[in-house]
Automatic annotation (TrEMBL):
GO terms for cellular component: membrane; mitochondrion; respiratory chain complex; thylakoid. Belongs to the alternative oxidase family. Keywords: Electron transport, Iron, Membrane, Metal-binding, Oxidoreductase, Respiratory chain, Transmembrane, Transmembrane helix, Transport. It comes from Amborella trichopoda. The chain crosses the membrane at residues 105-126, 168-187. It is found in: Membrane. One of its GO terms (molecular function) is metal ion binding. This is Ubiquinol oxidase. Its EC number is 1.10.3.11. It is an enzyme of class 1 (oxidoreductase). Binds 2 iron ions per subunit. Signal peptide: none annotated.
Length: 325
């Protein structure tokens, strides 16, 4: 059996202890200095770590809160500016085209397809510099412009462009709108998408009011040939492509008369609103025909994942060294 270490505990000479008491005290195990100090040291270290974590938490929370508040204010400012611009345009159109519906629709459709040209122009520029690689955005925006083009062709067939003043106004607004959207999209894609959503909402509301007002009359008029071909004939891939909120082939509208045409156009505008809403969350847009994202192509080569939210972010990413795994 092992021996038990004992410690002699000194007492003042004035204190007298009995022999039995001295034996008991003599048999107490000795507590080494290491065993006495380790628990205290551990507690001290733990307390220091906890204190550091609390200080870090206190330092980080105001920064995160400030960042979130700043972004919320930016969004509010962007949306307020967009709503104001939309209301100005609506008042101009109301003053000029109060009772001239087809001419108003012609102007609207000439303007409505412009932002998709602008989006693609900026995205092609980003792609040329190697800042961006997202094919879904180009596919969807082209399909949206293709849809708006056929709305425009329908309005031209209905005589909406018969007056030179309407053509002049629509074309000059479109030029200004294009460059404005390019600048807006380069600075804040979120703001540009929201503005386009506002325009599409107005288009939906305009067509809905017209259908309610002229519904019975429209049911007695034939559908334009261009509308029949676009909605019912040929390859409908692009028709499905711009409707990102639904699966392909799930919407096949009928075209029996002019009423059906305007109902289809109104519903198209609603789909544009949904797509523009989705685009405001960066990286959220997906083509209805896209397969789940993969990091390699069919040959096994890695796919480029370059991405940016605006020209400032693109330039920052281009000068930032790429981290290698």
């Amino acid at each position: 059996m092992g021996t038990v270490a004992t410690a002699m505990i000194p007492f003042p000479s004035s204190v007298s202890l009995s022999i039995s008491t001295q034996k008991v005290l003599t048999c107490l195990p000795t507590l080494s200095p290491l065993r006495r100090r380790v628990p205290r040291k551990l507690h001290l270290v733990k307390a220091t770590i906890l204190q550091d974590k609390e200080e870090d938490k206190v330092e980080q929370e105001p920064l995160e809160s400030t960042s979130g508040t700043l972004e919320e204010w930016c969004i509010k400012i962007e949306q307020s500016v967009n709503v104001l611009l939309t209301e100005v345009v609506i008042k101009i159109l109301d003053a000029l085209y109060r009772d001239r519906h087809y001419a108003r629709f012609y102007v609207l459709e000439t303007i409505a397809r412009v932002p998709y040209f602008a989006f693609m122009s900026v995205l092609h520029m980003y792609e040329s510099f190697g800042w961006w690689r997202r094919a879904d955005y180009l596919k969807v925006h082209f399909a949206e412009s293709w849809n708006e083009l056929h709305h425009l062709l329908i309005m031209e067939e209905l005589g909406g462009n018969s007056m030179w003043f309407d053509r002049l106004l629509a074309q000059h607004i479109a030029i200004f709108y294009y460059f404005m959207t390019v600048i807006m999209y380069a600075v804040s894609a979120r703001m540009a998408y929201h503005f386009s959503e506002c325009v599409e909402k107005h288009a939906y509301s305009t067509y809905d009011k017209f259908i309610t007002l002229k519904g019975e009359e429209l049911k007695s008029l034939p559908a334009p040939e261009v509308a029949i071909k676009y909605y019912t004939e040929g390859d409908l891939y692009l028709f499905d492509e711009f409707q990102t909120s639904r699966a392909p082939c799930t919407r096949r509208p009928k075209v029996e008369n002019l009423y059906d045409v305007f109902v289809n156009i109104r519903d198209d505008e609603a789909e544009h609103c949904k797509t523009m809403k989705a685009c405001q969350t960066h990286g959220n847009l997906r083509s209805p025909h896209s397969q789940p994202a993969t990091t390699r192509d069919e040959s096994g080569c890695p796919l480029s994942e370059a991405d940016c939210e605006g020209i400032v972010d693109c330039i920052k990413n281009s000068v930032t060294p790429v981290k290698t795994k």
